Amino acid sequence: MTTKRFALIAGLAVTLVLSGCMTPSRTVQRTSADTQTDLSGRWNDTDARLVAEEMIDDMLNRPWLQRFSSDQQREPVVIVGAIRNRSSEHIDTSMFVKDIERELINSGMVRFVATSEERAQIRDERMDQQTQASEETISRLGEETGADFMLQGSISSNVDAVEGERAVFYQVDMELISIETNEKVWIGSKEIKKIIEQRRARF
Amino acid sequence: MSIVRATAIVGAVVMLASCMTTRNSRFVEIDDAARQGNFGVAAEQVVENRDELYSPRDQVLYYLDSGMLYFYDRQYQSSVQQFHEAERLIEDYFTQSISQTAATFLLNDNAQNYSGEDFEDIYLNVFKAVAFLQQDDFEGAFVEVRRVNNKLNLLEDKYQGLAAEYSRSEDASVQFTTGESRFYNSALARYLSLIMYRADGDYDGARIDWEELQEAFARQANLYDFPLPLDGSVAQPADKGARLSVLAFTGEAPVKRAETLYVVTFDDRVEIVTASEGSAGTLVPEGYASFYYPGVEGGYRFKFQLPRMELRGSDVQRIRVVADGQPLGELNLLENMEQVALDTFQVREPLIFLKTVTRTIVKGIAAQRGKEQMQEAGANSGSMLGLAAGLIGSVATDVAVDASEQADLRVSRYFPAYAYVGEWVVEPGTRTIEVEYYGSNGLLRVENIGPVDIQPGQLNFVTSFHNN
Description:
- The complex is a heterodimer.
- Chain A is of the alpha/beta class.
- Chain A has helices at 2-22, 45-60, 63-72, 94-107, 116-132; strands spanning 77-86, 111-113, 149-162, 165-178, 184-197, 201-202.
- Chain A has 5 helices and 6 strands.
- A 5-stranded mixed sheet of chain A has the order 2-1-3-4-5, covered by helices on one side.
- In chain A, helix 2 runs parallel beside helix 4.
- The longest helix of chain A is centred in the first third of the chain and has 21 residues, at 2-22.
- Chain A starts with a helix and ends with a strand.
- Chain B is an alpha+beta fold.
- Chain B has a single domain (21-246, 311-354, 408-466), classed as Alpha Horseshoe (Serine Threonine Protein Phosphatase 5, Tetratricopeptide repeat), CATH 1.25.40.10.
- Chain B contains 13 helices and 13 strands.
- Chain B has helices spanning 3-19, 28-35, 39-48, 50-53, 59-72, 76-92, 98-106, 118-134, 138-168, 187-199, 203-219, 337-381, 384-404, and strands at residues 96-97, 242-250, 255-266, 269-277, 283-292, 301-310, 318-323, 326-330, 332-336, 418-426, 429-439, 442-454, 461-466.
- In chain B, strands 9-10-2-13 form a 4-stranded mixed sheet.
- The radius of gyration of chain B is 27 Å and the shape is elongated.
- In chain B, 41% of the residues are buried.
- At the A-B interface, strand 1, strand 3 and strand 6 of A face strand 1, helix 7 and helix 9 of B.
- Strand 6 (201-202) of chain A pairs parallel with strand 1 (96-97) of chain B, so a sheet runs across the interface.
């Protein structure tokens, strides 16, 4: 009886070990891009999306846009300036800035011009066209669209932590500044707070 | 037991000890390459031989070692990537595995994931910040500085709180100060943070770092037992001219070596063999003692192996900075990084000792019981084959127990030993900077930094190193 019981336990143990070995160590599951995912507690795509949504909504519903359109009888032209990362994480700010840019352009209410880095490449190409492109297709010099406003901002974070638990507070501030008058016509702010807990032990 | 058999057993122990090597033996060639300044070769060897050099539980060390070697080789992007992985793993390993912890009581401390010491966690961000600066990524460097500040705040709360709690308790017969307990504030990290805030025009931020830097010296006197190398002007804008900041690193981080003690008992007698680890990572038998101890039961064998920290220091005794061929002045010690490592180790040492002794005794007694049963079964079998099987089983038990008892010698080995600093206000403009390293016999090496554009309100930061 004892031998049988031992054999049974040993058999179960072997099965468990083998079934453990057969499970793939990594699985991939496709999910929709707007699914909220919080794995490490760090800044992620969900945060970038929330910031972009809030900023777009806020920017398009403030009086600066209406005022400019009625004064100038055209859509304002915006350029993206520096979005500084003042947080304690390496954050790719271009992710949500591109979201903001795209949504604003698609709204048809705001026009964007290329950033200074993008412009350098385009100007090189335009200069090249002056000698290489045909007369009919050449892009003319001195025809760039000047921006009316510059979008600037920063992401800052504050961390309060004890062993195994930390609270991270992010604040994203963005400002739209008139290039001609230095007037700040819109200020948007989005705050995100996360509590991250980490267990001291696992099996 | 006959004298011949006893001699044979002790002889076998000595032979076994002299054949053994530690994890340090695997790094001899890489250490040599790094010492000769062939950091690229050393980094390549670490990466290529990752599986032989580092067990799956030592991956933090793999990333720290390769990150540091890439840093010295000026492969800053690779260095940042490796440090980033080390930091991620250190964070993950905050959650300890209960099964691994249990295994440390049965086998040895190497059974647990190496989760990095506090100083390693701080220094990796310091070198990441410097690596970002070398790539002209001020924002990236600032992120690292903020991470260091968060970590230091956490350490300060943790250890200052503990010290305060202990001092308040009724059992506290002597005043317990944090300075005597743990490293929780780094002058090096604070200085780097200070110059970044200063360059960003945030003089309030710079002032806070200056105060924290002074506090590191004041409250951790055991780690900072040398004069403060800077004064309050570092947190202020320069009145005239531009401020040049030079940070230099020298020497090699300490390593842990194994000290082994074998105790073999015979009836009424105890034999002791000691072995010390040499520079090549081989155990060298050093001492032997035999004494009469009435009442001692024969047949027990214990192997105690404990780590000892060996400082590797630096040949450099002074460092001079030269601008356009004219001496600017000497650098002064800012952080004794090897002392920080030693202090951290020493805090843990009593616990390691207690755990090792307990584990070894339990294993030794269990092994003896097992050996007795095997020999008894062999003798009862009545055959020569059974007797031989019993004896072989006993020897195999001793060998297995010996092999399982290994000191935890894990520590990052390529951080520098010392950090030096110097600041000068100079006329703005482009200057050719050289850093001269002097040993006891004169000039060891000159590192030509090349032209540096020094401008008011800018970072104007130069870093250099000499790893001997």
